[in-house]
Amino acid sequence: xxxNVASSRLRSKEWFGKNDRWGLAHRAWLRAExxxxxxxxxxxxxxxxxxxxELNNCNAHLRQVAEAVKRGVLEAGGFxxxxxxxxxxxxxxxxxxxxxxxxxxxxxxxxxxxxxLDGVVLLCGCDKTTPAQIMGAASADVPAIIVPGGPxxxxxxxxxxxxxxxxxxxxxxxxxAGRMGQQEWCEIESCVARSAGHCGVMGTASTMACVAxxxxxxxxxSADIPASDSRRNMVAExxxxxxxALANEDVRxxxxxxxxxxxxxxxxxxxxxxxxxxxxxxxAIAGRLGLELPLSRFDEISRTTPVIADLKPAGRYLMEDFxxxxxxxxxxxxxxxxLHPHTLTVTGHTIVQNVSGASSYNQQVIRPLGKPxxxxxxxxxxxGNLAPNGAVLKQSAASPHLLKHRGRVVxxxxxDDLIARFDDPNLSVDEAxxxxxxxxxxxxxxxxxxxxxxxxxxxxxxxGVKDMIRLSDGRVSGTSxxxxxxxxxxxxxxxxxxxxxxxxxxxxxxxxxxxxELCVSKAEIKKRLKNWRAPTPPYLRGYGRxxxxxxxxxxEGCDFDFLRGPAGAENHPxxxxxxxxx
Length: 582
Description:
alpha/beta, eight-stranded mixed sheet, 3 domains, Glucose Oxidase, domain 1, four-stranded parallel sheet, about 35% helix, 14 strands, globular
């Protein structure tokens, strides 16, 4: 493209291209930072949206990644300017980083929209930072590219490889059962998290990095490079070069994030047995573009997509193994015939062109299509009278003998009730029981925290019980394993049928038939719902009140009701605000 034609399209010219008072002021403000006009005149201004934070180990290395992006932008003839946004670290934020995903998305959107940016490189890592940045970029609809932070190095303890999250839960159960002592537990703490980067299993962070690449908004091969690998900075530099071309060509997220691209992302999600959280995030991202993405679409694709990545928590291996085996490109090449082949990506090539020539170098980690781990995708979508608007189950991480089961219910009304009673030796529970936790949905949590991995009562752990069916209207960490039914919608706090489940009721799960049923008559359900009363909202002011008042249910992506639908770079009122030229 002719550089003069390209520069005439740039948003930044509205700030820096005018020969008036405001043009002088804008240029002088950059000169005040030591930049000469030669650096930014008639060049794409590229924002580097950095979610770096010392409170978030997943993203703690992104300062160095940002420097690599800057090199690429400068080399390609752009002008890079780094800016911060809030950083969502699931490990330290309470009650959950999910409470603040929409806030970060708003932060990202408004920064992109308000500043003189022609393109933006989004640096992410931890679970919610990736979807939040994609949501914000989709709404702003300025050329954008994602650079994931990458997984941390594997832990090793007494010759055993450890993946943070998955193995922490596993060994904590050993402590609770009395089979592991404090010395061993302390040793694990010292080596389970060895570097910056997100969890090294196919948890939510790894899943969302893979989803971003499958959507086409991240460079091919960028999803799975370890955080501390030098190739992470190389792909960041290349992303910096590429965003300049996208800005000059005016290739926007709305051109990339099509209905077919979402199908591809769901297909990949099912093939890698990715986190159930990706379903909520994909629905939210699609909603920002005005695209309907019902849960039924996830189940349709799951039924025809085999699981071919053998990764914790559903399998045996870690993200380092996945990367060394060929990574996401190898998976996508293996399922190439199931993808929409002509979807555009930020590379400038189609999704199939991106993975041409890829192959698996370890067929234990990335299986051939003819030898899958499961014939159907990693996650099933359930329906039934207990989940009128759906629920999800990661069948690839569940116990096969529990996928068809009817059991007596043990109910915990909220998280405080759970904490107070789950290890009570007098709790009336056995291995056939079904544990139910209410009040941890989008409004009830609030924020739909990852508390759906209810602990197995200690007396059952000591008896050798490894898994039970556990149901909730909340979420689970992508690092969790077990027979966990989550995202039950509507949530109990909103008056969904889960709200009226009682101790002693029976629930039947039939995963193959995709059914979740409360075994109570319609008349009794109707009677109980009539007598139900909504709890007092947990927040009376501030962002928490905004969240509770406007958050949508799980099957709608948990976005805010006023943020759905396309806004676009040129259609938003902000784009009509111009300096008066006085």
